[in-house]
Amino acid sequence: MVVRSVVRPFVPREFQDFLSSGIRSFLLRLRNEMTMVIEPYDGYAQNELFEAAQVFLAAKQSVSVRRVRVTKSTKESHSTLAIIDRNQMLADTFHGVKLKWVLVSRQAGSGNPVHQGRKSAAEHGEQYFELTFDKKHMEIVDKSYLPFVMDEAKSIKREKKTLKLYTSKCIGLGPGTWSSVNLDHPATFQTLAMDLELKKKILDDLDRFKRGYLLYGPPGTGKSSLVAAMANYLNFDIYDLELSGLHSNEELRRLLVATKDQSILVVEDIDCTIQLQDRKLETQAAYMNRMPMGYQQKDRVTLSGFLNFIDGLWSSCGNERIIVFTTNHIEKLDPALLRPGRMDLHVPMSYCTSFGFKLLASNYLGIDHHELFDQIESAITTARVTPAEVAEQLMGCDEPEVALRDMILFLVNHKRKENEEVIEEKAGQSQLIEANGGGEEFEE
Ligand SMILES: Nc1ncnc2c1ncn2[C@@H]1O[C@H](COP(=O)(O)OP(=O)(O)OP(=O)(O)O)[C@@H](O)[C@H]1O
Question: What domains does the chain contain, in order, with CATH numbers?
Fold first, then answer.
């Protein structure tokens, strides 16, 4: 600290960091101390201990810390003191053992020799933790303190409910990397408009840690909302895997290896991932090349490669992973995905029912009864409107009477359009029959 304050005005920041880290290690050698380095990544996999330390230390206020980072997510009502800032020291004691944490920061490419030749903090984000203690306490730190930090971080996270949404569409971060934002989706099982029995079945399955879910139904029926509700219920992060953005099975493998426990891996619109559809081509190519299925086409992700990795991920990662596929067209899916045992639960997401409407009215207007409800409920059972469309109508106005009258108008117009479409379709069909020389031939 003394050296730092003396040299600070004269010496560039990078050199100050280098000096202080050198002095620190020199002092350690004198004092018989030991330092553990905790980097954010282990190769391509995230180091869970690094994230746990961030959460754990953020919750530990200490008078010895003079600079903290302050953050606030939209979900939180007030700002929170985040992790200790770079090169600050935080002292902790565990069963009488004195420990010192420092978040060390380097400029990108500064090339500390300790980290050369492997994937390290230098390539990933330039920060890592140093945990220093007396050598003789190595065992207690390794066997008791670090597990304690992990457990504490888990329960702090559970309390704070700041979940993460990881996405694989990360332009600029290089292939096979996730980037994350806080998950602030408000959906819960209480606010979801869907069949009550189905809801209960999903909740039971989640409690028993069933692992694979296939959500199918038209756009706007709540597939993404259900995934968010699952994450909020389990307190799990979400990994949104964009398969069509990947170039190889190797890239896919790297992404899957980097996912953490207590997470939901989501592959949205799986029917639209063109490469996955053509299984026949894949079989043919495997045969021609005499290569094992799933590995013969290096420049794209293959269905069998994908399924192999998913099966491997499940078998090696215990019960704290859930995989969700969503599709608007279940009929287009490859049978390999629908095979019994592959997905534990197939969840149909449907157009809005009268029960769904009442729940949405309660969510958005805060009412459970209204004289216009009967009229709307009977209209909604025959109109094919999605919960998203109903939600949009109800959000349009805070005044229940106005919102419900608008809703009736919307349903009437919707029904009229639907009828017109049916008439047009029938007209098109009869023209086709005529063009083909009459109904009988068409029948054949
Ligand atoms: N079942 C539902 N219950 C409550 N709200 C819903 C439901 N379905 C849709 N919504 C509302 O509509 C919005 C859009 O729905 P969502 O994105 O979940 O549908 P989706 O089926 O995933 O659509 P897509 O297939 O286009 O991705 C949600 O943010 C939510 O406000």
Answer: 2-160 (no CATH), 166-348 (3.40.50.300), 354-440 (no CATH)
